[in-house]
Amino acid sequence: MEKRIITISREFGSGGRFIGEETAKKLGIAYYDKNVINEIAEKSGLSPEYVRESAELSPKKGLFAYAFAGRDITGKSIEDMVYEAQRKVILELADRESCVIIGRNADYILKDRDDVLNVFIHGDMSEKTQRIMDLYNVGEKEAVKMMADTDKRRMTNYNFYTDQKWGKASNYTLCLNSSQLGYNRCEKIITECSCNP
Prior knowledge:
By secondary structure, the protein is of the alpha/beta class.
């Protein structure tokens, strides 16, 4: 079956977002990343700013913050409400049209569908560090810290809301090292795999 939906999970600094955007352009399909934030905010009743900060990343305090987060009468925390709204939006997008979805546990949310290609993009430490330094205009130490913090928060969120381990190869159809392959080849591989099941 042709893969209509491509989900891209990625390490911070690996270029996964750029690769996803280019793949969507090449395939002529929709691209969803930060542009789903307003829909998630609408469904959860929370501000877009809050959703931007929380929809993919765990609280800075880590896993215990989830366990002890303030919960309402139904036992749901604000993070749970964001996740539930995000889940609904992703399921609706997948039903609506062919698309590339960046992050947001989309690989897990859409795991019961046969028309999904799940990709994990990772890279070599030195290249990711350089990319972050260039993109955010920061020094090496700050770039390494940003990378560690962001990936830790993505991993905590993913591990909490799925019964899977973030970055584990068996959760994905493809795991690509963007430092070894280059962005263009990653995009080409993803495009070919989505068109030739």
